[in-house]
Amino acid sequence: MRTQKDDRVLDDPHFVGSFVYRAYVYFWYRERAADAQDNNRETQFYARVGRVCADDPGGPSPAQDRWSSFLKARLNCSIPGDTSPFYFNEIQAISAPVPIESGSDAVVYAIFQTSRALPMSAVCSFRLRQIDAIFDHGRFKV
């Protein structure tokens, strides 16, 4: 099984981790942001989380070898600024899901860095319940 071969689905992805949690498989990666450039006109990358149903059978023919439930969202690891947030866009590593709230939810910790022009790092946490709510209700920025 795979996604369709289309840069609009995955654009030069760099995968940093994946895991199965409950009914889904989560993929954590960074990919080229097709419509974004920094002040130096360099290509930007966005951190993303993708999700697919663990029992995804694929689409109908001729797409039976492609996931039909794949969704992705941009991850927001940032610090507030005077005029706009400062984003850490380049995800480097993730933890395994850490159970919280007596096991009813889990948190994933992720390490991020900035581009080489301004080297900084950050650790951000993401609740899987919140990620699922975003995928299930259509607001695709975590």
TrEMBL record:
Residues 1-142 form the Sema domain. InterPro entries: Semap_dom, Semap_dom_sf, Semaphorin, WD40/YVTN_repeat-like_dom_sf. This is Sema domain-containing protein. It comes from Heterodera trifolii.
